[in-house]
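Lab notebook, bench 4. The sequencing result for the construct came back, and we need a structural model before the next group meeting so we can plan mutations. Quick request posted to the team channel:

Model the 3D structure of this chain.
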Amino acid sequence: MASEEIEALIGRVAMRDQKAFAVLYKRTSPKLYAVCLRILGNRTDAEEVLQEIYVKIWQRAERFIASEGPAMPWLTTIARNQSIDAIRARKPVADEIDTAYDLADTEPGPEEQAMVKGEGRRIDRCMEELEADRAKAVRSAYVDGLSYQELAEQYAVPLNTMRTWLRRSLIRLRECMDR
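Done. Here's the predicted structure in token form:
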């Protein structure tokens, strides 16, 4: 659509010509919708903002001055600004500082921290009862996340041997922890 034709339609819209407004909408809405969709990233939001854009165009048509620039960039600027305003409106308003005291502290309390540390020391003592290579293999498997295959290659033993090492080591750890 030629810029002159859009400018003429905007001029008629400024005089409150509803038919010209309908033609302007039909000819320019795909482009403006694409601008909104690109900025907002959501079809529903883009459609809502597009409606608001055409309300603004209806209200501001008399402000358009053809000598200051082409019509399509003027329409695109309205679409862009309205889309950005919609994004800003989405952001949640910061909570009042007075409501912050209602937030629960998810960190463990001193008693729970002491229990966890005590359990950790017990596990370390039990790990010391294992052979050094078995203890290292258990740590590698259950702390570092190495697979049985990786451990078997690292220790140069068959895969089933590594599985047996780990299973027997875990049994010994459980027996130690139960004492």
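Residues 18-40 form the longest helix (23 residues).
Will bring this to the meeting.
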